[in-house]
């Protein structure tokens, strides 16, 4: 077992060897500090995310910037609702990434007329990286289908469950 003084002497000798590499050591420390400061905002914007949400590249939709949902039911269009829990919204966006697009033949077989529909607004707040924008989404609750733009998507049980949890906790009115 080495003595305490031997360990101290050993570390002191190692540090004296590093004195010749002051520039390299300083740049390394600076790089680590920069990664700690700038890493989380870059990850939050997620332009490096390899997945696509509802066939829209993340650099256009930026699903991590969606922070509020507005909802309106087709059977009661005069009572809007909204939802602001960011964790549940991100869970919904991750689940929507797994939605499978319906082919044109499947779309022809699906009849969405006279179906109960929930109109959902995906609200993106402004930041340094993008402007404020809303994206419209239609959720057909009985069919388990989502319409985003002109494309229909079949969603899985996890997405349906996320929509159900959001509907249970939504707030009456509209965000300010």
Describe the model.
This protein is an alpha+beta fold and 176 residues long. 41% of the residues lie in helices and 27% in strands. It has six helices and ten strands. The chain has helices at residues 4-18, 22-45, 58-61, 86-96, 104-109, 157-169, and strands spanning 52-53, 56-57, 66-73, 76-83, 100-101, 117-124, 133-140, 145-148, 151-154, 171-172. It has an eight-stranded antiparallel sheet with strand order 5-9-8-7-6-3-4-10, covered by helices on one side. Strands 1-2 form a two-stranded antiparallel sheet. Strand 6 and strand 7 (133-140) form a beta hairpin. Helix 4 packs antiparallel against helix 6. The longest helix has 24 residues, at 22-45. The model has no long low-confidence stretch (mean pLDDT 84).
Distance between the termini: 67 Å
Order of helices and strands: HHEEHEEHEHEEEEHE
Residues in β-strands, percent: 25-35%
- Report the radius of gyration as a whole number of Å: 25 Å
Record the strand order, biggest sheet.
Answer: 5-9-8-7-6-3-4-10
Helix share bin: 40-55%
Overall mean pLDDT stands at 84
Structural class, from secondary structure content?
A: alpha+beta
Shape: elongated
Which residues form runs of ≥5 with pLDDT under 50? none
Summarize the main sheet: 8 strands, antiparallel
